[in-house]
C-alpha cells in the first residue's frame, strides 16, 4: 500500500502515469498510477485545478480530498476500496459510476455537502460503510441510484435524497437507515425484488417517493417505518407483502393517481390515502397481478391490515380492509370486488350542465332540471341523463375523469356529443341513436352490464371485467381494436366490427358469439388468441370475417381453438396467414386472387372448405416454410378450381380434388388430385 498525491495540475486521471502522481504532498511527479491498494489524496498542494476522472484508471484505496479547492470532474467509472472524503471547499461535477469494494469494517463516507450525482454501488463481501454527513445523491428518474450488492451500508440517518435504493440479489448484505428523512425521486424508489440474504433496518426513517409518473415500490416483504408516495402524478405498483409503521398516499392536481398492490400489506400505525379532489384528482387503490397492465382485473383480492385510517377522495378495487381500523372516510368510491370498507352512501345525480365537464360539481344536481352544485357521481352512484340534461342541439359532455359509473342516455334529448379523453367505465354504457361518440371504451367493472351503442362508432374497445359479463344490446362498430383482457364478453347475437381482435392474456376470460359476425378490418395480426390459457371461446353459429382492401398482409392467430365460420374476403392483395392448428366449420376465401399461407406443421380441421379461383385469378395455398401444413376433413369430397398449391397435405377421410385448372406449385403436396372429380364435374364448393 502506498500514498499517491495529485500534482499534475489540470489533467486526466486515467491509466497513464506521466507526471501526475507523487508519493508526498506537493512532491515530484512521476510516480506510478494508483490502484485499489493505494490511498489517493487531492489536497491543498494539488492546486485549484480540475482533475478529470476518465476511463483506464485503476481506482484507489481511499480517496481523501481534505484541503482541495479544485474540481473533481469526469464521467469515467471509479472503484474505491476504502473510505471517501469530500470537502465543502472543492467543486464536484463528476458523474461517473462509483463502486465501493472494501471487504473491511470501519469504512466511512464523508460527502462535505457535495451532491454525488452518480450511480453508486457497494459491493464488498464483509465490507461495512458508514455515512458520516448528509448525503444528497442527486435527483433523477433513473440515474443516481444507490445499490447494495454485498456488505453493510449504514446511512446513519444521513441520506437526504437519491433516485432509488436497490438491493435485489441473494448475497449477504445489510442496509441500515437510521432516522433519515429522505426523498426518493426515481420510477423505482425501492427495489428489493429478490430479498434473499437482505437485512433491512428501517429504524425510524421516513421515505418519501415522489416520482412524477411510474412508481414501482418493490419492497421484497421487508418492514419499513414511514413511507409516503406522493408529491407528483404517479401510477404506482407495490410488490411484496410489506409492513409499514405509517403508509401515506398523497394525490396531486392530476387526473388520477393509483397504487396497485400485488400482495397483502400491513400498516401497524395509520394508513392515509388523500386524493387531491373529488372529481378528476382521485386515488385508485387496487389489486394487481405482477406484470399485468393497469386496469386488468384478475378476480382476486389483496388485504390491507391497518391500525387506523385517514381516507379521502379514494376509490378501492379488489381490496379487503382489515385490522383495528375503521375503514370509512370522505368520498370513497366502490370500484367493486371489495369487502371490509364502508363506502360513501350511494346517491342519484342528474346532469344539468349541457356542455360541460364530468368533473365539474356545478353541472350535477340532486334532481332532474334542478340547481347544480351537487357532488360528482362516485362509482356506486346513479348518473341520470334525461330531457333536462341537454337544452340545445350538439351540446357536449366531456368525460375527463379516471373512472365512471353507468351511463344511460336513453332518455336524453337534443343528440348530445359524448367526448371521452380518459377513464374507464365501471358499469353499463347505453348511448342513444343520433349521439356522437368517437372515443375509446374500456369496460372495467364486475357483475353484469350492458353495452348499447345503437349505431354510434367508437374508437378502440377494451374489456377488462372481473367475474362478470358485458352484454351487447346493439351492433358495435369500432374504428380501433377490440381487446378482451378478462371476464366474459357476450356478443348476444349482435355484430361487431373492429380493426383487430386480441385476447392473449392468461386471465380467466370468455368470448360468446351466438349468431354474431365479427369483422376485423385492419392489417397485421388482426385476430390474436396466441395465449389460450383460461380462455373459453363459444363460437356458436357465429362468423369471423377478415376483410381488408389493402396490399398489406393479415394474420389469424387462432390459438388452436374451435371456431364456427371464418371468411377471408376483400379486394386487397395482402396475404392471409393462418397460424396454430384450428378447427373450423366453414373455411372460406373469396374474391380471388388471394394468397393463403398456413403455419408449417399445423393442421386445420375443416367441415366445409370453400376456396376457389377464377380464370386468370388463382387462389394460392402455401406453407410458412418447406414443411407441409395439413388440411383435414373427415368425410366427403372437396373440389376446387384455379388453385395454386405447395407444401400441403390433405386427408382426414375425405377426397381432395384441386381441379383441372389448378397447379402443383413447386411440389411437396400430399393427397391432392390435380384434376377434376372422377365423375367429370367441377364443383365450386364441398359436397
Describe this structure in words.
The chain has 687 residues and is mainly beta. Among the domains are: 1-96, no CATH class; 592-687, no CATH class. Helices cover 0% and strands 44% of the residues. It is built from no helices and 70 strands. It has a 29-stranded mixed β-sheet that branches. The protein has a 19-stranded mixed β-sheet that branches. It is globular and about 105 Å long. The N and C termini lie far apart (93 Å). The model is unreliable at 291-295 and 680-687 (pLDDT under 50).
In short:
The chain is mainly β and 687 residues long. The chain is built from no helices and 70 strands.
Uncertain runs with pLDDT below 50, 5 residues or more? 291-295, 680-687
Q: What percentage of residues falls in helices of 4 or more residues?
A: under 10%
The number of distinct β-strands equals 70
Structural category: mainly beta
Q: How many individual helices?
A: 0
Largest sheet: 29 strands, mixed
* Alpha carbon gyration radius: 34 Å
Amino acid at each position: 500500500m502506498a500514498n499517491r498525491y495529485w500534482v499534475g495540475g489540470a489533467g486526466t486521471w486515467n491509466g497513464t502515469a506521466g507526471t501526475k502522481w507523487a508519493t508526498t504532498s506537493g512532491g515530484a511527479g512521476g510516480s506510478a498510477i494508483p490502484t485499489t491498494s493505494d490511498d489517493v489524496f487531492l489536497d491543498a498542494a494539488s492546486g485549484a485545478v480540475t482533475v478529470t476522472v476518465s476511463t483506464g484508471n485503476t481506482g484507489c484505496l481511499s480517496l481523501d480530498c481534505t484541503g482541495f479547492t479544485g474540481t473533481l470532474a469526469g464521467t469515467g467509472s471509479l472503484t474505491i476500496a476504502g473510505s471517501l472524503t469530500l470537502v465543502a471547499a472543492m467543486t464536484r461535477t463528476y458523474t461517473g459510476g462509483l463502486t465501493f469494494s472494501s471487504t473491511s469494517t470501519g469504512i466511512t463516507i464523508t460527502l462535505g455537502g457535495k451532491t454525488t450525482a452518480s450511480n453508486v454501488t457497494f459491493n464488498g463481501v464483509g465490507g461495512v460503510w458508514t455515512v458520516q454527513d448528509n448525503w444528497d445523491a442527486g435527483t433523477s428518474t433513473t440515474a443516481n441510484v444507490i445499490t447494495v450488492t454485498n456488505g453493510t451500508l449504514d446511512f446513519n440517518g444521513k441520506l437526504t435524497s437519491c433516485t432509488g435504493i436497490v438491493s435485489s440479489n441473494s448475497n449477504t448484505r445489510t442496509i441500515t437507515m437510521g432516522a433519515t428523512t429522505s426523498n426518493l425521486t426515481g420510477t423505482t424508489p425501492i427495489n428489493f425484488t429478490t430479498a434473499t440474504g437482505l437485512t433491512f433496518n428501517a429504524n425510524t426513517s421516513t421515505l418519501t417517493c415522489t416520482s412524477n409518473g411510474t412508481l414501482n415500490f418493490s419492497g421484497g416483504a421487508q418492514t419499513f417505518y414511514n413511507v409516503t408516495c406522493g408529491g407528483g402524478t404517479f401510477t404506482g405498483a407495490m410488490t411484496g407483502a410489506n409492513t409499514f409503521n405509517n403508509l401515506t398516499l398523497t394525490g396531486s392536481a392530476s387526473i388520477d393517481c393509483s397504487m396497485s398492490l400485488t400482495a397483502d400489506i400491513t400498516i401497524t400505525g395509520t394508513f392515509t390515502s388523500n386524493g387531491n379532489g373529488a372529481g378528476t384528482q382521485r386515488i385508485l387503490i387496487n389489486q394487481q397481478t405482477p406484470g399485468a397492465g393497469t386496469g386488468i382485473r384478475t378476480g382476486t383480492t389483496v388485504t390491507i391490515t391497518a391500525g387506523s385510517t385517514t381516507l379521502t377522495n379514494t376509490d378501492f378495487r379488489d381490496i379487503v380492509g382489515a385490522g383495528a381500523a375503521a375503514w370509512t372516510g370522505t368520498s370513497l368510491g366502490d370500484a367493486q370486488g371489495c369487502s371490509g370498507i364502508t363506502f360513501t352512501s350511494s346517491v342519484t345525480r342528474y346532469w344539468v350542465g349541457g356542455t360541460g365537464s364530468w368533473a365539474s360539481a356545478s353541472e350535477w344536481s340532486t334532481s332532474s332540471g334542478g340547481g347544480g352544485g351537487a357532488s360528482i357521481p362516485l362509482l356506486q352512484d346513479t348518473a341520470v341523463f334525461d330531457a333536462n340534461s341537454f337544452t340545445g342541439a350538439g351540446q357536449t359532455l366531456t368525460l375527463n375523469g379516471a373512472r365512471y359509473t353507468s351511463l344511460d342516455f336513453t332518455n336524453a334529448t337534443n343528440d348530445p356529443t359524448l367526448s371521452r379523453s380518459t377513464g374507464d367505465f365501471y358499469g353499463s354504457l347505453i348511448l342513444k341513436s343520433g349521439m356522437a361518440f368517437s372515443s375509446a371504451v374500456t369496460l372495467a367493472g364486475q357483475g353484469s352490464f350492458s353495452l348499447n351503442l345503437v349505431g354510434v362508432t367508437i374508437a378502440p374497445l377494451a374489456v377488462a371485467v372481473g367475474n362478470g359479463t358485458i352484454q351487447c344490446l346493439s351492433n358495435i362498430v369500432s374504428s380501433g381494436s377490440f381487446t378482451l383482457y378478462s371476464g366474459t364478453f357476450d356478443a348476444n347475437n349482435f355484430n361487431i366490427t373492429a380493426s383487430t381482435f386480441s385476447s392473449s392474456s392468461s386471465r380467466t376470460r370468455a368470448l360468446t358469439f351466438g349468431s354474431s359476425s365479427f369483422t376485423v378490418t385492419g392489417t397485421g395480426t388482426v385476430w390474436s388468441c396466441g395465449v389460450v390459457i383460461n380462455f373459453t371461446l363459444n363460437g356458436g353459429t357465429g362468423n369471423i370475417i377478415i376483410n381488408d382492401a389493402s396490399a398489406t398482409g393479415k394474420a389469424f392467430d387462432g390459438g388452436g381453438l374451435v371456431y364456427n365460420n371464418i371468411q377471408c374476403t376483400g379486394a386487397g392483395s395482402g396475404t392471409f396467414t393462418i397460424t396454430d392448428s384450428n378447427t373450423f366449420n366453414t373455411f372460406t376465401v373469396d374474391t380471388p386472387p388471394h394468397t393463403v399461407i398456413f403455419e408449417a406443421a399445423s393442421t386445420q380441421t375443416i367441415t366445409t372448405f370453400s376456396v376457389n379461383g377464377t380464370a386468370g385469378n388463382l387462389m394460392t395455398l402455401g406453407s410458412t416454410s418447406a414443411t407441409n401444413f395439413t388440411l383435414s376433413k373427415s368425410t366427403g369430397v372437396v373440389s376446387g378450381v384455379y388453385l395454386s398449391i405447395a407444401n400441403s397435405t390433405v386427408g382426414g377421410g375425405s377426397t381432395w380434388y384441386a381441379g383441372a385448372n389448378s397447379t402443383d406449385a413447386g411440389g411437396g403436396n400430399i393427397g391432392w388430385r390435380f384434376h377434376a372429380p372422377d365423375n367429370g364435374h367441377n364443383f365450386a364448393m364441398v359436397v
